[in-house]
């Protein structure tokens, strides 16, 4: 009986991962439209794992969800998901300050399952003044894993912390926190990874759902068959721990959001000791997550640049990220000149970062040194 159950789990996991990786499950495309989202109270740490636990029990009832309605300025019709009609119609409108205040106390989980407020990822003691939050798809998604590999090759923690205004990157997924270690190992990501299993942050920030594959970006260096096989393999290897079906919603896509201070030259409540920041480089949680550990005022932040994915492989290209972060260069070129040229020329995001101001600060520091 145990062997039969394991075989059934393996088949289910393999099918789910193949569908998610290819983005072409026709059966899902013709299924009934999802129910209208409803508004709920802010999730607690215990609430965050309930949807996955329900799936593990085989419960057919809809899972409990939290804060499912995006802010009015970012409202998108989700009643007819365009899963197979090319790019999904969405917006790169910057989230207003009231949206950021609303989600400041929303909860994310770290690799140990410990809860942290979203605000603690980008504000507080020993946290960089500028933080790029990268929202990724489910933890078995080969497309997003390729993105983080490319990002990690070109954007180093040391380079970010050497900028005139300290800068860092945080990654947020939507699966079980027990899969974070596997995800970090698979991607070689040197930045902290958290998860939002209820996808409350995804919804409030206007990110959408789709299985559309879209055009192949420059950050995709491995072939589709290989990324699909790797994702399926990760799912199968997760069966013994009961995590094969807990990687996150396979239709959910993410995006990138840059949070910066209101004033480039007035550091309030910023990292006071560079030793602590640099000692944390290379660990799974180099910054943030220190709820209630701040002794001074917290510097107010705002979203100055953002991009929301329209397909399952529509992250902002690495040259664009390096540009808005204020880093020199364009990243690692690829052999496909056409795709690389497109990555250098096109810009997906909206907004204006402090990169130009940092350049002036850097020049002033050189003159006085």
TrEMBL record:
Q: Which branch of life, at top level?
A: Eukaryota
PANTHER family, alphabetically? PEROXIREDOXIN-LIKE 2C, PTHR28630
Q: Which organism is it from?
A: Purpureocillium lilacinum
* Name recorded for this polypeptide: FmHP
**Matching Gene3D superfamilies, A to Z?**
Glutaredoxin
Region named Disordered:
1-97, 345-369
Q: Where is the composition biased (Low complexity)?
A: 7-21, 61-73
Q: Where is the composition biased (Basic and acidic residues)?
A: 74-83, 360-369
Pfam families tied to this protein: AhpC-TSA_2
